[in-house]
């Protein structure tokens, strides 16, 4: 059962990262409103592939909750019905969460796949919580944290709904991203304590505080990054998707803070690498950190100077989330050591 639990926890972690990757693709392709309602997509479990499926037609059966587009508004069937020769407004309620009523099949299916990954991740964490009950007598923290993660996934799903209802409000997108990283951290901690017999917390440890500080800087940088991404999205709306050379025009101080902040992060992590090497600490993941930082900077440079090559935005977000996970696990490793440095 122990091995099964650990394996399920790791699968859950991979699925959460897949949700982050899918979310990054959603942002890259502008598919956030591909499904304008939640949790279904146009009121259906399997979304439409053609606009004709969302248009009113005579002698057509609709189930309660299904959505159609009429006069640039979303109309929701208020009961099971079969249409007659003319449209009967009494059978439909206007969708009031927002007024976005555009159908793009590519955007719809990209957003739908994102939601599928989210559902799979939620199911995996629920199964993990069921397995965790066996730990109740020996390690209550494992059981409690496992069930807390289930509720966190539910909260994250609700946040996703609020993002849709707000028509992609940038602050809510940022909170949604930070919550995803919090779930990653909880799963990593769960895996860590399930594998270890004891965890010794060292409060006065230079290495620990250095790693924790670099982790905090990464989290702050992610928040700045989501704000920069929103500014870029607004610029795209002004100049168009084909004018990539203009996407960084008039981006304001947030972009420059984000770019300059990366220099500080590189310097501190490089110092941390030499600090760990000098003390001969068994924290090999610092090498992963430096590699990920190199890739992160490379994608940032590509976006800035090569006019956003395809996939660079998504890759930039995904690398940052992996970097956060590696740094967080390093914090846990230092917490488990008894050597003070």
Summarize the structure in words.
The chain has eight helices and five strands, in the order αβββββααααααα. The longest helix has 34 residues. β2 and β3 form a beta hairpin. It is flat and about 80 Å long. It has a three-stranded antiparallel beta sheet with strand order 2-3-5, with no helix packed on it. A two-stranded antiparallel sheet has the order 1-4. α1 packs antiparallel against α2. By secondary structure, the chain is mainly α.
Biggest sheet details: 3 strands, antiparallel
Main sheet: strand order: 2-3-5
Helix and strand pattern: HEEEEEHHHHHHH
From the N-terminal CA to the C-terminal CA, the straight-line distance is 37 Å
What is this entry, summarized?
The chain has helices at 2-29, 105-132, 140-165, 170-195, 206-239, 253-279, 285-305, 312-335, and strands at 61-62, 67-70, 73-77, 81-82, 92-94.
Considering the chains and any ligands shown, give keywords for the structure.
about 350 residues; two-stranded antiparallel sheet; mainly alpha; three-stranded antiparallel beta sheet; 5 strands; 8 helices
Task: Explain the layout of strands and helices.
Layout: H1 2-29, E1 61-62, E2 67-70, E3 73-77, E4 81-82, E5 92-94, H2 105-132, H3 140-165, H4 170-195, H5 206-239, H6 253-279, H7 285-305, H8 312-335
Helix pairs in contact: 1-2, 1-4, 1-8, 2-3, 3-4, 4-5, 4-8, 5-6, 5-8, 6-7, 7-8
């Amino acid at each position: 059962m122990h091995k099964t639990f650990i394996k399920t926890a790791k699968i859950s972690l991979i699925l959460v990262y897949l949700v982050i990757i899918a979310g990054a693709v959603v942002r890259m392709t502008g598919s956030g409103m591909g499904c304008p309602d939640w949790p279904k997509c146009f009121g259906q479990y399997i979304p439409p592939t053609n606009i004709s499926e969302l248009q009113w037609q005579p002698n057509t059966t609709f189930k309660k909750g299904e959505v159609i587009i009429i006069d640039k508004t979303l109309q929701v069937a208020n009961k099971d019905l079969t249409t007659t020769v003319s449209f009967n407004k009494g059978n439909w309620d206007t969708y009031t969460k927002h007024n976005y009523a555009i159908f793009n099949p590519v955007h719809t299916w990209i957003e739908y796949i994102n939601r599928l990954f989210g559902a799979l991740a939620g199911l995996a964490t629920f199964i993990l919580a069921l397995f965790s009950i066996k730990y109740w007598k020996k390690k209550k923290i494992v059981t409690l944290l496992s069930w807390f993660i289930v509720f966190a996934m539910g909260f994250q799903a609700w946040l996703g709904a609020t993002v849709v209802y707000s028509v992609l409000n940038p602050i809510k997108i940022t909170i949604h991203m930070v919550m995803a990283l919090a779930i990653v951290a909880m799963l990593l901690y769960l895996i860590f304590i399930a594998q270890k017999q004891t965890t010794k917390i060292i409060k006065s440890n230079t290495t620990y505080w250095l790693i924790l500080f670099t982790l905090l800087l990464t989290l702050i940088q992610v928040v700045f990054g989501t704000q920069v991404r929103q500014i870029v999205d607004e610029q795209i709306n002004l100049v168009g998707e084909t004018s990539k050379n203009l996407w960084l025009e008039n981006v304001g101080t947030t972009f420059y803070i984000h770019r300059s902040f990366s220099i500080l992060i590189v310097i501190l992590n490089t110092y941390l690498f030499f600090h760990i090497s000098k003390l001969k600490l068994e924290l090999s993941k610092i090498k992963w950190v430096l590699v990920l930082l190199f890739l992160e900077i490379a994608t940032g440079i590509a976006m800035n100077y090569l006019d956003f090559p395809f996939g660079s935005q998504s890759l930039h977000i995904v690398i940052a989330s992996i970097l956060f996970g590696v740094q967080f696990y390093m914090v846990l490793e230092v917490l488990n050591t008894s050597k003070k440095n």
